[in-house]
Hints:
Low-confidence stretches: 1-8
Structural class: mainly alpha
Shape: elongated
Largest sheet: none
Number of helices: 16
Order of helices and strands: HHHHHHHHHHHHHHHH
Amino acid sequence: MANPHRDTPNPLLDRLHLAWDVAIILLVLANLALLLFDSLYLLPPLNAAFEATAPGLHGAYERHVHANFIAIDLVFVAIFLLDVLLGWAVAIAEQRYHRWFFYPFVHWYDVLGCIPVGGFRLLRILRVISLLHRLQRLGVIDVRGWRLYAVVAKYYDILLEELTDRIAIRMLDNIQLQVSASDALTSQALDRVVRPRKQALIREIGQRLEAMAGTAYAHHREDTLRYVRGLVGRTLAETPEIRRLARLPLGSQLARGLEGSLSDLACRLANEALEGLQSPEFSALVEQLAESGFDAWLSTDAHTERVTEQVLVELLELLKEQIATQQWRHKYE
Length: 333
């Protein structure tokens, strides 16, 4: 029975839990020793050697233990079953697991150890797991530092990865078959997934364009205005009329003044235009443009459906190749 996690520890309850855990540990050891000894007792050579070595003890064991083995074992089973039920009750009271019935599945080794049927008595060895768990919780041992624990954990991870990879690949194979066998997968996906969310997608596209434009302009405002000024200056320098004006008396000053005025005007227009991307008018314009082209973008034919299906199949094949890669090799090598 696990110790409950309390905000205000109770020393008396802690001592009771400790005493119960120690008692269960001793009972588990005694029960396993009894099972082992009685199994060896059933072997004729060992039985004969035991009788020859200690005939009095052999007779006492035969009359008092072996003859009543089932009743003695049921006493152990009753105590172990009580331990499981108490641990289950504590887990429910502490809300330790997501559902109240998870406890017997998490502590499956304790549950199997409570089955008194003869063939299942061998499963009593699984209580060693419970024994190690209790000793770990009491701080008597630290199995995580054992070399055996590291080996078991390693091969457990490998086995789990291989099993999950095989299951995932089999599922992807089935999906690929479904995609290849479907005659109108693209049309069904558009009709059942995309079209019902048309307005939401249009709003999302508009919001992303606004956010992208606003963020880009906020980070590159000076570069943008510098580019506009340079563009105005190059355009005016290449204009024949401005060249002729510059050759007149005071013409160069007029040309520079004109260039400055036009640059300021162009920068102001660019600034107003880019800041206007976050206006309600621009949002409405983007939604109108997206809506007008949405149906055309979704229009499909046999060729586009085949292309879409091939893309899906190849993507699934890529996923299968990635899953088939044995990650545990990279981890342990």
